Amino acid sequence: MTRSRLFLFDTTLRDGAQTTGVHFSLADKLAVARMLDDLGIDYVEGGYPGANPLDTEFFAADHGLRATFTAFGMTRRAGRSAENDPGLAALLEARAGAICFVAKAWDHQVELALGMSLEENLEGIRDSIALARSRGREVLLDCEHFFDGYKANPAYAIACARAAHEAGARWVVLCDTNGGSQPDEVERIVAAVAAVIPGERLGIHAHNDTEQAVANSLAAVRAGVRQVQGTLNGLGERCGNANLTSLIPTLLLKPGYAECFETGVTAEKLGTLTRVSRKLDEILNRTPDHHAPYVGSSAFATKAGIHASAVVKDPATYEHVPPESVGNRRKVLVSDQAGRSNILAELERLGIRVEKDHPTLGLLLQALKEKEAEGYAYEEADASFYLLARRILGHVPDFFLVESFSVNVERRWNDKGELGIFSDAIVKLRVGGEKLISAAEGNGPVNALDTALRKDLGKYQSFIEDLKLIDYKVRVFQGGTDAVTRVLIEFQDAAGERWTTVGVSGNIIDASFQALTDSMTYKLIRTGATV
């Protein structure tokens, strides 16, 4: 069976940049563009050339992409010719192989927001596309508010799409701009448009305001569109855009799509999807969504003992796709609800092989339940569980011994006459027969403590120099004067491996230090350090 080609259009660098709290630097934009290109995305939209200095500089850069780099902007303004519109001039000057114009397709918006006649809007679409085509550009038209426009005035919405198609646009993109359309509506309306404009010239651009952007995009594909627009991790204004990290594996792996369509993303590149998703979060200094479909750390996590047993024996029972197909991995969580199946599965994943009738396995299960009664939680803290298991089932080397540590937080004036909060820490430890003392300042007490601990680990220093603390979480429970604090710390090394450790104490600094020392010990074991 011959499969139809679906084209993927990413707008993370424009729509995604409108996400609250997201800010791209020039280096960020270049890195994300190359990451998308390597994944196999067909079109990478860069933003509005000329709209701000950053985008202007971005479009002036040499991107070296295989993907079609695309500039975004409006069709000509009312009362101007296309040749004399400064916005169009900036688009034509940009180093981009394609231009994506945006035009209103809702008669109400044309008259109210643009203040022009319906016919003038159509003329603006034709003129802008004709000019860009004459300059050798591939052209797309985003029909903004298309679905609301169609519901209000079907003839005019289709007239906008037809004007673009007849003027030579390669793609006419139907936009659910306010994200309010339902999948059945999208499928019905796209089918009506596909009866007028060939599906291989149609695209879909869906927003996620009813949590249906992915479903609406898939509905549009079923109805005939052959370009799908979206963003990595579903970034975008308000509730975001269609999430390409959900759409791509669905299109490539799920029945009804996988046998019918192909994309520029190969099976090999699909296996990097989780890494790409998390790399974007790292660039933006955002915590990954652990429950994200396909790529979240909990996407293939199983907690209940009976389910864990089934997953070990028959993974397809509870995993709708193999985790490795998207670069993720299976997790069988360990907790006070865990049975032997959970424990054995997690030990095997961590590289600790134990027979199911091993005499100390019961001791580990009992220790786990006692620890969690004290407040420890190992569901996310896989590195701490690894150390707990090794201490009970085998041995953990004493790489270093902490004799003492102290942390000081002081509010004072600095040498510039500025009043601020300053933190410093001192750590005294022994490595073999050597006594080491390290002091450091930090942005807060935990940062100071982390810096001091890793400042000098003697003969093990080279093993930990590439560590980066990437996430720090605190939860206070059992409130009141006897409150207990749980701290989770996530580290990453230069190879991209991540691990999380946990510490529990009535004192947040002590809990943090437990998690920090566990992280150092775990890293030393995994890298083959010896005492």
UniProtKB/TrEMBL annotation:
Under the heading PROSITE patterns, the entry gives: AIPM_HOMOCIT_SYNTH_1 (PS00815), PYR_CT (PS50991)
- Please indicate if the UniProt record lists Amino-acid biosynthesis as a keyword: yes
The highest taxon in the source lineage is: Bacteria
Q: Indicate yes or no for the key word tRNA processing.
A: no
Q: In which pathway does it act?
A: Amino-acid biosynthesis; L-isoleucine biosynthesis; 2-oxobutanoate from pyruvate: step 1/3
Q: Which Pfam families match?
A: HCS_D2, HMGL-like, LeuA_dimer
Q: Can you name one GO molecular function term for this protein?
A: 2-isopropylmalate synthase activity
Question: Might you give the EC number(s) for this enzyme?
Answer: 2.3.3.21
InterPro entries, alphabetized = 2-isopropylmalate_synth_dimer, AIPM/Hcit_synth_CS, Aldolase_TIM, Citramal_synthase, LeuA/HCS_post-cat, LeuA_allosteric_dom_sf, PYR_CT
Instruction: Give UniProt keywords alphabetically.
Output: Acyltransferase, Amino-acid biosynthesis, Branched-chain amino acid biosynthesis, Isoleucine biosynthesis, Transferase
Q: Which residues form a coiled coil?
A: none
Instruction: Give the catalysed reaction(s), semicolon-separated.
Output: pyruvate + acetyl-CoA + H2O = (3R)-citramalate + CoA + H(+)
Looking at the record, the residues that make up the Pyruvate carboxyltransferase domain are: 6-271
Assigned protein family: Belongs to the alpha-IPM synthase/homocitrate synthase family.
The protein's name = Citramalate synthase
From what organism does this protein derive? Labrys wisconsinensis
